């Protein structure tokens, strides 16, 4: 094989690796679709699934229009520079020169994203990040089911998936990001950058959205609203698990000419460690939630996700025993957090805050405790608790909770956030889509009540002695 | 410090293990024992948890969990503070693997063992209390 062919092989391997990792990552979305659909009631199943499906469109396109640019343009802002764009002089300093080379490939009009034999990699990285963005928005989607207006959800998904999360990624995950360069922040699997931001964003939205009708009794005590199809929910989470392996694999950097695999921070790692640690986190998380929730099926299956998120930030460094203990701890606490949130009057339909918000926060902070003192590069501070704490708080409060609360508050003021009461009672399948998810069974509670009455009348009439008929 | 590296060059060019507590096999052994205990707890719980009914409380395991998290948190905060204080002197060291002092290495497991032991005592105490209560109830029944 000649040198040119060898060089191309390196490019092709990188291109293929990110392409297929991203395709598998799409399973997260399929999983969320099934998970949320199963978790909703029959009268809302289709609306929930369609809403989830629309995330692909809202975030996919918004990420192309500005999200990808935000990731590359915001790393220096506001600590070590401004927002990078067509107005920036690339020759300002070395860092700006290096960063601008990437910024220029992320404009929607850039030829790097179009078919271009000179650039095989920008497009696959865009694809991977767009799926990260959709996943982030889908986390929000589950929390709001059965009462949010589709339009409101689309706006919220764009704000979260194509802007606030992306700013968090630019600061905490981009190698030029100031979380990393100023604090030595380490968040390999995006515990705070993805999950913390989205979990707290969802919490902010839920405060304005309010609980579903019937969730709380007159005294304000929560009443269970059971998933209509728990097996579907469980299958959905299994798909999410598969996608998560791909998500974490896509966090690895291997580029043409590289002699080793690195994290996004340029530190050494192995794909094998992702295989081992994700498996152990999944296993340990499930048992943590199983024990803690006293075998509640919904929490038990969510425990796998809670376990992975709890160890995600330091997965490239943790010894497997650290992973087992930490994932167990995170998943053990998750149901308690979810129930606490419910008790204080916040109706988080799928426990998104407990799984993503709390475990994301825990996972990011855990690096500052369990993986302290790692050097990451010349001039970059060592990993440490303060270096994790400050960026994590910025992620969950400034980029998560405040934008979530603020955007939903505005939508609420314009009466654009929540569906009308009668639509919520009738079910969003009929109100939004005009069709039921299970039309042949008439399982909608309103119609089933009528059917039950009709059935009882029919049965009663059959049992009554008919005139002229001998008993 | 849970990192076995002292400088960026050493870490970025490493050929071999990079994992946390790589310089402290005692902690890894301890965590392995905790992991095994959690696994055993899981098997035990799978017999005791039925239809969402509460499982009997197990103070040993609970105290183990609380102890592990509290001590590990406190020790790393303490270590990072100490490291920061002694940062200037560390730069003079040769770039070799950081090895904590024996005192530091043994401090954490010893604390944990003592806390686990106190958890065990708690369980014994609670068992004693439980037996006492049972006896009192029986006595009251027959009186």
What does this structure look like?
The complex is a heterodimer of chains A (471) and B (143). Mean pLDDT of chain A is 93; it is low at 466-471. By secondary structure, chain A is mainly α. Chain A has helices at 3-39, 45-73, 94-103, 121-143, 150-172, 178-183, 191-209, 230-249, 271-292, 297-312, 320-343, 352-370, 385-413, 421-426, 428-433, 445-463. In chain A, 55% of the residues are buried. Chain A is 65% helix and 0% strand. The termini of chain A are far apart. Chain B has 143 residues and is mostly helical. Chain B has helices at residues 8-12, 25-48, 59-85, 87-90, 102-142. Chain B is elongated. Chain B starts with 7 loop residues before the first helix and ends with a helix. The A-B interface holds A 266-269, 284, 287-288, 290-291, 294-296, 314, 317-319, 321-322, 324-325, 328-329, 332, 368-378, 380, 382-386 and B 1-3, 5-8, 10-12, 14, 18-22, 28, 31-32, 34-35, 38-39, 41-42, 45-46, 49-55, 65, 68-69, 72-73, 76-77, 79-80, 83, 98.
How would you summarize the topology of this molecule?
The complex is a heterodimer of chains A (471) and B (143).
Chain A: H1 3-39, H2 45-73, H3 94-103, H4 121-143, H5 150-172, H6 178-183, H7 191-209, H8 230-249, H9 271-292, H10 297-312, H11 320-343, H12 352-370, H13 385-413, H14 421-426, H15 428-433, H16 445-463
Helix pairs in contact in A: 1-2, 1-4, 1-8, 2-4, 2-5, 4-5, 4-7, 5-7, 5-13, 7-12, 7-13, 8-9, 8-10, 9-10, 9-11, 10-11, 10-12, 11-12, 12-13
Chain B: H1 8-12, H2 25-48, H3 59-85, H4 87-90, H5 102-142
Oligomer: heterodimer
Which chain pair shows the most residues in contact? Answer: A-B, 40 and 45 residues
Tell me roughly what share of residues is in helical segments of chain A: 55-70%
> Terminal Cα separation of chain B, in Å?
62 Å
Strands of chain B, count: 0
- Rg of chain A, rounded, reads 24 Å
Secondary structure: helix percent of chain B? over 70%
The residue-averaged pLDDT of chain B reads 66
The percent range for strand residues of chain B is: under 5%
The biggest sheet of chain B amounts to: none
């Amino acid at each position: 094989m000649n040198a040119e062919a060898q060089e191309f092989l390196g490019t092709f391997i990188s291109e293929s690796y990110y392409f297929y990792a991203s395709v598998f990552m799409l399973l997260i979305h399929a999983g969320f679709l099934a998970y949320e659909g199963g978790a909703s009631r029959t009268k809302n199943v289709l609306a929930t699934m369609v809403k989830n499906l629309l995330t692909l469109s809202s975030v996919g396109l918004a990420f192309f229009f500005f999200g990808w640019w935000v990731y590359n343009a915001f790393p220096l802002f506001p600590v070590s520079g401004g927002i990078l764009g067509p107005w920036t002089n690339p020759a300002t300093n070395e860092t700006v020169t290096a960063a601008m080379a990437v910024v220029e490939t992320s404009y929607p009009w850039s030829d790097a994203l179009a078919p271009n034999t000179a650039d095989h990699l920008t497009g696959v990285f865009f694809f991977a990040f767009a799926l990260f963005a959709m996943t982030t928005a889908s986390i929000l989607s589950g929390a709001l089911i059965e009462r949010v207006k589709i339009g409101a959800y689309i706006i919220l998904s764009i704000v979260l998936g194509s802007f606030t999360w992306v700013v968090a990624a630019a600061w905490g995950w981009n190698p030029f990001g100031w979380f990393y360069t100023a604090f030595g922040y380490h968040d390999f699997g995006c515990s705070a950058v993805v999950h913390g931001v989205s979990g707290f964003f969802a919490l902010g939205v839920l405060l304005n959205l309010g609980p579903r009708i019937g969730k709380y009794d007159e005294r304000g005590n929560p009443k269970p609203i059971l998933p209509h199809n728990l097996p579907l929910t469980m299958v959905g989470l299994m798909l999410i698990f598969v996608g998560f392996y791909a998500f974490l694999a896509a966090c690895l950097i291997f580029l043409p000419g590289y002699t080793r695999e690195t994290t996004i921070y340029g530190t050494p790692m192995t794909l094998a460690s992702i295989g081992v640690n994700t498996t152990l986190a999944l296993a340990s998380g499930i048992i943590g939630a199983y024990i803690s929730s006293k075998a509640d099926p919904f929490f038990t299956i969510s425990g796998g996700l809670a376990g992975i998120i709890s160890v995600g930030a330091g997965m490239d460094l943790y010894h497997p025993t650290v992973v087992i203990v930490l994932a167990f701890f995170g998943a053990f606490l998750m149901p308690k957090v979810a129930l606490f949130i419910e008790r204080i009057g916040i109706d988080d339909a799928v426990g998104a805050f407990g799984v993503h918000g709390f475990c994301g926060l825990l996972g990011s902070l855990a690096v500052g405790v369990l993986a302290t003192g790692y050097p990451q590069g010349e001039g970059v501070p060592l990993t440490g608790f303060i270096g994790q704490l400050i960026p994590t708080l910025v992620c969950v409060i400034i980029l998560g909770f405040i934008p979530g609360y603020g955007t939903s508050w505005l939508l609420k003021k314009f009466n654009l956030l929540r569906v009308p009461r009668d639509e919520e009672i009738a079910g969003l399948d009929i109100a939004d889509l005009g069709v039921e998810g299970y039309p042949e069974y008439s399982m909608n509670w309103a119609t089933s009540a009528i059917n039950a009455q009709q059935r009882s009348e029919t049965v009663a009439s059959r049992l009554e002695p008919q005139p002229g008929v001998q008993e | 410090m849970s990192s076995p590296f002292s400088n960026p060059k050493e870490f970025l060019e490493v050929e071999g293990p990079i994992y946390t507590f790589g310089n402290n096999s005692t902690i890894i052994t301890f965590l392995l024992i905790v992991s095994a205990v959690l696994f055993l707890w899981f098997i035990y719980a799978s017999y005791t948890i039925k239809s969402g009914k509460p499982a009997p409380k197990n103070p040993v395991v609970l105290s183990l969990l609380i102890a592990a998290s509290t001590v590990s948190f406190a020790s790393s905060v303490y270590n990072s503070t100490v490291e920061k204080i002694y940062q200037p002197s560390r730069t003079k060291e040769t770039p070799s693997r950081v090895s904590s002092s024996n005192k530091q290495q043994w401090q954490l497991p010893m604390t944990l063992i003592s806390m686990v032991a106190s958890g065990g005592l708690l369980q014994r105490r609670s068992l004693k209390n439980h037996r006492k209560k049972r006896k009192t109830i029986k006595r009251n029944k027959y009186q």
